[in-house]
Amino acid sequence: MHIGKRIKKLRKEKKMTQEDLAKILGVKPTAVSAWESGRNKPLMDKVGLMAQYFNVPISYFFEEDKLEEKTIPIKRFAKLPIVGAISCGNGVIAYEDIQGYEEVPGSWLNGGEYFLLEAKGDSMIGARIMDGDLLLIRRQNDVENGEIAAVLIDDEIVLKRVYKTDGTIILQSENPSYKPIVVRPEDMKNIRIIGKLKKVILNF
Questions:
Q1: Catalytic residue flag (residue 160)
Q2: Which is the catalytic residue, given 8, 46, 59, 160?
Q3: Structural contact between residues 25 and 57, judged by C-beta atoms closer than 8 angstroms
């Protein structure tokens, strides 16, 4: 089922017309018609708005259908965006720079919304995260002490181990060459945890 059929399915379940959906998304009804027929595809910001409105993860729009055969079970895969940049305005996170898509086994996903990041640099080599590895991130706005998270600092995404104490957050690298980033309460508005590291996909 391509993305257009998924949009149509969600719209029909809500008993909405193409005009209704177009008005919510700020586009023309002809755009919705083109998406549903497969003649065109929506931009990621519109996919994000639809995910929020229909209360589904963004990955829903890119999942491959499960093929069923009587003798050979086939694993279900999901196509996830590889995100190069993320913006956060008015409390809403938007993926701004989609560098491509990668299929991952559905068994890796256990509820929630997921996306992929590419590791850059050597600050997390102690956790066996190397430059160029793909990182499977589950989108969430908090993690437990000691867990590895994707953190948005101003306009930069960093991957660090997170420790919280007395209102202060410490972002710790897994490389002694890098000093920890200490975020005090007065600086909290400049950072935001955007997801938890779930799996490292090695770059061979």
A1: yes
A2: 160
A3: no
Active-site position among 8, 46, 59, 123: 123
Let me know if 81 is exposed, middle or buried by CB neighbors in 10 A (0-12, 13-18, 19+): buried
What pTM value is reported for the model?
Answer: 0.58
With respect to residue 69, please indicate whether it lies within any of the assigned structural domains. Answer: no
Identify the CA nearest to 129 among candidates 95, 81, 161, 105: 161
**By residue range, what is the domain housing residue 173?**
79-201
For the domain that residue 42 is a member of, what is the CATH number? 1.10.260.40
Residue 41 known to be catalytic = no
Find, among 89, 92, 174, 96, the residue nearest to 141 by Cα: 92
pLDDT at 93 (0 to 100): 57
- Say if CB 105 and CB 158 are below 8 A apart: no
If the chain, 204 residues long, is cut into consecutive pieces of 10 residues, what is the mean pLDDT of each piece?
Answer: 86 92 92 90 87 84 51 63 66 66 86 87 90 90 92 86 90 91 87 91 69
Q: What does each C-alpha distance from 14 to 9, 34, 53, 110, 130 come to in angstroms?
A: 9, 19, 10, 25, 45
pLDDT value of position 68: 37
Same domain? 169 vs 94 = yes
101, two tokens:
């898509």
